[in-house]
Write a structure and sequence with these properties.
Protein name: Gypsy retrotransposon integrase-like protein 1
GO biological process, one term: DNA integration
GO molecular function: nucleic acid binding
Organism: Nothobranchius furzeri (Turquoise killifish)
Largest sheet: 5 strands, mixed
InterPro entries: Integrase_cat-core, Integrase_H2C2, Retrovirus_Pol_polyprotein, RNaseH-like_sf, RNaseH_sf
Helix content: 25-40%
Number of strands: 16
Number of helices: 15
Structural class: alpha+beta
Length: 428
Amino acid sequence: MQLLKDRIMKGWPGERSAVHKDVLAYWTFRDEITFTSGLVFKGAKIIVPKQLRQEMLEKIHESHLGMIKCKERARDILYWPNMSTHIEKMVSQCAACNENRNSNPKEPLLSHPIPTRPWEKVGTDLFNHNGSEFLLCVDYFSKFPNILKLTETTSRGVIVAMKSIFARHGIPDVVVSDNGPQYASAEFKEFAKRWEFKHITSSPTHAQSNGQAERMVRTIKNLLKKSENGKGDPYISLLEYRNTPMEGVGLSPAQMLIGWRFKSKLPTSTLLLTPGGVDTIQQRLKKRQEKQKIYFDRRTRTMPDLYDGEKIRMQRGETWQPAVVLHKHQQPRSFVVRTSDGREYRRNRKHLLKTEETVVPITNILDFNSEMDTQTINGQAENLAREQTSVAEPDNDQITENLRGRLTGTSYRTRVDREVQLPARFRE
């Protein structure tokens, strides 16, 4: 700063090359710089010396305003070279701001590939209506919904209902669902294996990945509610929905899946009830999807990728907790991370935050009897944690303690009351 004061008092040289490198950053606006009452000004803004800049940064961010607000506040009254960059770094390293910041914005729409034939790919979900539980299966190609009332919401009940639907339309190649306990169970995995279809799950807490089923649930619940309020027949409402042409395609879900219009209460000619081809459906669906993506992507932005071992924060509820990236999941925008308490989670990129702060080291809090096989116990611990995580938002602080207590006998019960037997060599 003394060099700058001397240069102001002596005057600036005619050539830029004659300026000392420490004051070269001020050359472009040298005519605005003045020295008054022991302070250097750029116009009416105080130029802050190097030794005071860190103190000014702390005062600028003292009230924990956002990055933009902090920069606007500083630019209004202060100046030093690269001030905006220093403020950005200061805010990005603030643990309090990172922990309580807003959710990440939506990313550009990641569209599912249009299937090449009807019932090739099916989305499924459960929903409640008037105290009753229902299973929904919707075809990704035709958007044709199938609904069955469930007598029980266990994996067995869901599997029986899905078998009934598959018996009518055939076995799909792919079934997409959320990570609900009915779909995450070993029983459902065995069902997928025996019936020879691929089961794909969405990222936990990110239902948008199974958006086709989620949207159809909202549509069906709205139809049922309106039908009941109007004292109509809900089955007629469902029939008419299946018979109504899709915007941008010109064919109804019934035509795209079955190949013909369903006969309904509305008078329809025999010619229109005659089955027709579906040669142009995929092309029309693709154009419709591209149009939807254009509109959706106007309100989105792509987030930077994450790498193995990178220290980040994971959104849990309204806060962001320290974590580290273990590896990228095989599904797009999905990562497996470990939090500071040793738990592993799979999360969508939307719920993960890049940060430059120093994250709490990841440690393994599980501590079992050395007589027990470590790999076996770790596998049981991970299965229990995954099971509890998939059932509902878990009480993570109790998982390890509960597991210790349950492993002392010949068996233990999971949170959903499933009994797990220990191998004979581990029993006392």
